[in-house]
Specification:
The protein is an alpha/beta fold and about 375 residues long. Bound molecules: nicotinamide-adenine-dinucleotide.
Length: about 375
């Protein structure tokens, strides 16, 4: 019989209900043994949905429990390092939401502490699990792109002027659209093209009041980058693209151009990509082979549920499987910290109006 992996969830808000709980429910021999949320009403709702009896409003109590092997951190960004370091100190494996921290120094400290403790560590860059993204990564890796020329990503949503809660408060979120949405696309850029050498960025807050509360964070961000391999990058993300809708109904596209080919990936088209060869007549749509429709080994049936929602469940499988196999998670805390370093440089660039160099990446 397989020993169950026992998981505690800290932060039982939207992303826990949307991704983590349904993902864990599909993992065999995996139990949620404890739940934590600072808000007793949210905790009670999560208890009602899961039947989990061990509840606490204090993460310090949960991370020391003997019936917990692994912790999922799904709280607002400013709390991640404190919770992660406490959990590492008790030898727990960690899946932490993005962005990992409010700055790269804290994010790398989390990665190094987890590595030293010998626990599994994973950053929740959920869009890595889109089948088309994984296929595109493999095509680029095997050389189909040729020499990379350009990386381009565009994330356009329409969130209007509504109150975003902690997401519009610098002290709690760190950055706005940059950390919330662009962080995933910086991770794609690293995955497909490699590390950046330098960048210049602009962040723009268009609405200083959202709902009836002040906002001190960016609604829009753009970043112009040069990669170490010489390729260029243009990354844009907005919460104010009126009429573009939200979440998986809105635009999330990545295009890469290389000496051999171009590829276009759009999250909403989870099982196809567009491609065209250099000098060819234009782009054609190619299907994503079925072997990519779910993460290797994932027990999820890709034909069940809305595929634009259910690909996210493979993230929990990757975490649990890495714990069981005692292998590194993909993506890990170092991937999260490298993205954080780019975010820090983007903030400094926007403040100073200068290009920022990026230090060669620690691994
Ligand atoms: N990977 C993704 O695609 C994705 C999508 C959405 C959100 N996120 C990330 O997930 C995290 C949570 O986002 P959300 O949308 O679920 O937010 P949310 O506000 O819906 O939920 C956060 C919960 O954390 C609780 N909380 C706050 N401080 C706490 C503490 N010290 N201890 C215990 N609980 C605490 C709050 O009461 C709340 O219930 C953020 O880091 C966000 O960036 C990631």
């Amino acid at each position: 019989m397989t020993t169950p992996v026992r998981v505690a969830i800290i932060g039982c808000g939207s992303i826990t209900l949307q991704n983590h709980l349904p993902g864990l429910a599909l993992c065999p021999d995996t139990q949620v043994t404890a739940l934590c949320d600072a808000n007793p009403a949210v905790l009670e709702r999560a208890r009602g949905q899961t039947g989990v009896a061990a509840l606490s409003t204090r993460f310090e109590e949960v991370v020391r429990r003997d019936d917990v092997d692994a912790v999922i951190i799904a709280t607002p960004n400013h709390t991640h390092p404190r919770i992660a370091l406490a959990a590492v100190a008790h030898g727990k494996h960690l899946l932490c939401e993005k962005p990992l921290a409010l700055n790269a120094a804290d994010a790398f400290a989390m990665a190094e502490a987890a590595e030293r403790a010998g626990v599994r560590h994973m950053t929740a860059f959920t869009y890595r699990f889109v089948p088309a993204m994984r296929y595109l990564h493999d095509l680029v890796k095997r050389g189909d792109l040729g020499q990379p020329y350009h990386y381009r990503s565009c994330r356009l949503q329409d969130w209007g002027t509504r109150n975003l809660g902690w997401r519009q408060v610098r002290a709690l979120a760190g950055t706005g659209e940059l950390g919330d949405m662009l962080s995933h696309r910086i991770d794609f850029a690293h995955l497909l093209i490699g590390p950046m050498r330098r960048l210049v960025a602009q962040l723009k807050r268009i609405h200083p009041v959202r709902g009836d509360a002040p906002s001190d964070l960016d609604d829009w961000v753009a970043l112009l980058a040069e990669f170490e391999c010489g390729a260029t990058g243009v990354l844009e993300s907005s919460k104010l693209a009126s009429g573009r809708n939200e979440s998986w109904r809105s635009l999330d596209s990545v295009e890469v151009n290389g000496s051999e080919r171009s590829f276009v990936f759009i999250t909403g088209r989870w099982n196809q990509i567009e491609t065209g060869r250099a000098g060819g007549p234009g782009l054609e749509t190619i299907p994503v082979p079925e072997e990519y429709w779910r993460w290797p080994g994932s027990p999820r049936d890709p034909r069940v549920g809305d595929p634009l929602v259910t690909f996210r469940y493979d993230q929990a499988w990757e975490f649990v499987d890495a714990i069981r196999q005692q292998r590194p998670c993909v993506p890990d805390f170092f991937d999260g910290a490298r993205v954080q370093a780019v975010m820090d440089a983007a903030v400094r660039s926007a403040e100073t109006g200068q290009w920022m160099g990026l230090a060669p990446n620690p691994s």
